[in-house]
TrEMBL record:
Organism, scientific name: Trichloromonas acetexigens
Transmembrane segment boundaries: none
One Pfam family from the record: GTP-bdg_M
Family stated for the protein in its record: Belongs to the TRAFAC class OBG-HflX-like GTPase superfamily. HflX GTPase family.
Keyword Iron-sulfur listed: no
Cellular component, GO annotation: cytoplasm
GO molecular function, one term: GTP binding
Role of this protein: GTPase that associates with the 50S ribosomal subunit and may have a role during protein synthesis or ribosome biogenesis.
Lineage: Bacteria, Pseudomonadati, Thermodesulfobacteriota, Desulfuromonadia, Desulfuromonadales
Gene: hflX
Recorded coiled-coil stretches: 336-363
Annotated Hflx-type G domain residues: 377-541
Quaternary organization: Monomer. Associates with the 50S ribosomal subunit.
Sorted UniProt keywords: Coiled coil, Cytoplasm, GTP-binding, Magnesium, Metal-binding, Nucleotide-binding
Subcellular location, principal: cytoplasm
Protein name: GTPase HflX
Amino acid sequence: MIHGNISGLKAGQIQALERIQRRRIPVDQVISVELARYLTERAFDLRRQVGVIIDRQGEIQHVIVGDDREIVIPDLSGYGLGRGGLRGLRCIHTHLKGEPLSQDDLTDLALLRLDLMVALAVGQDGLPGRVDYAHLLPPVTGGETVEVESVPSIHDLDLDFAAFTRALEGELERKVDDTIDLSDGRERAILISVSLAPRQETEDSLDELAELARTADVVVLDRVVQRPRQLNPKYLMGEGKVKEVIIRALQQRATVLIFDQDLSPVQVRSISAITEIKVIDRSQLILDIFARRAHTLDGKVQVELAQLKYIMPRLIGRGTAMSRLMGGIGGRGPGETKLEIDRRRIRERIARLEKQLANLARGRLQRRQRRIRAEVPIISIVGYTNAGKSTLLNALTQSKVFTEDLLFATLDTSTRRLRFPMEREVIITDTVGFIRKLPKSLLGAFKATLEELEDADLLLHVVDLSNPRFEDHIQAVERILGELELDRIPRLLVFNKTDQVPPEEVAPLCRRFDAVPVSALDRRTFDGLLAELQRRFWPDDD
Ligand SMILES: Nc1nc2c(ncn2[C@@H]2O[C@H](COP(=O)(O)OP(=O)(O)OP(=O)(O)O)[C@@H](O)[C@H]2O)c(=O)[nH]1
Ligand SMILES: [Mg+2]
């Protein structure tokens, strides 16, 4: 097939182009003198650039016709990248005015990870003139990423191509092996923040994104912070910058770009059109973590619903772009379910899940009514993710709720009884962790689970006091409670992980915030908390 601009060409001219596809280049040559000459003659005849994409076996994979200034290379993502991160394809094209390799040529070389980018100057007579060529270099910090060379004529191009690609590939692979382990099956990410917010805020948010990535079992290779004067509706950052970031990501052999800002469906699609590296945003990462951690049927249904609703508008159509959005991280369904990838099927699945969710909600309602009828006070533990909510619930009730030093260990509320002296008891429930920018779509999906909070007589707001950003966390939780209209319920602030805080700082902080200190790891620290609960619920008991 011939790609590009063939409008206005005569049948004979098209046939002449089609004949290019039957040519074959010896594996040790960049291009044969005959083919070079054939290409420049065609370009001279058409007054348009003509190009070919050749594989390592010397077969012509694509013939491309451009205008007098450029050709547009077709999608090559189907070819995949070899061990050294090269595509195994080279691009050879004509430059009508003998101009040197353009910036776009060099960007294409790096973005597409070609073996070589070659420009053949078209002489006055249509014969090939000077040859400019460029190849990638192993990444060095701050250095050039491509090397450009030039020979006066095609006859001077005595590069042993097979040996050249072997050497280059070996060098690229060695360079990467020093720093990352390619046999490690985990995803490798570049974290990207494009923000107009103050620097510290951006950095904090990126720290949290890195933490989320770790929780999702992703290796973070690098971070990129962009502070543009204005946000680009198509790429979030500028087009040149996004290409630069992708080129660097390719060099570092990243498999996923994770944006700290939520990307619009348009942005996901435009960036995905430049590279086959997967593009996801913070919400998708959180959804991914939720998907791995949902344990109950209720939780699984809600997460899958939220994922499908999030991904649906970002789907491009059938084919590669879709599998790029759906594969691996960001496209992991809860439990064993692989997310379905057909729009119509997604819609059907959403309808089915919503129905299922409604049924589950009825069961939940009955449980709640039974609990309320029992007239036992209900305490709900809320707090930022990783604050130690589940650990505290376990320690208070000596039960075993899944805890882990990862974000979002708990996705489902779990309920336990806590006995006090004098035959008193309360029901105490654990909830999903809150987070600063909890995606809107998720808040909705999790409302059902958080509905139980409405029945609580007291919210235990657990805070990780050892986290330097604990005040932000308190605020974030308060804000979400406000959004859920739960701020009318009495609250008790519990400062946890006090074992990690200098002892002399704990008491002043507790006074300032009117909080009770605990270390969920140490039951001996619970006296103050238990006394406060007793005082609130049964002030008349001794
Ligand atoms: N040093 C210390 N670590 C604690 C304390 N309480 C909890 N942790 C640790 O903090 C981590 C998170 O605890 P979890 O109980 O899973 O936190 P969570 O708030 O339930 O987290 P999510 O359910 O993910 O929102 C675990 O590694 C706990 O062992 C504490 O008092 N001191
Ligand atoms: Mg938990």
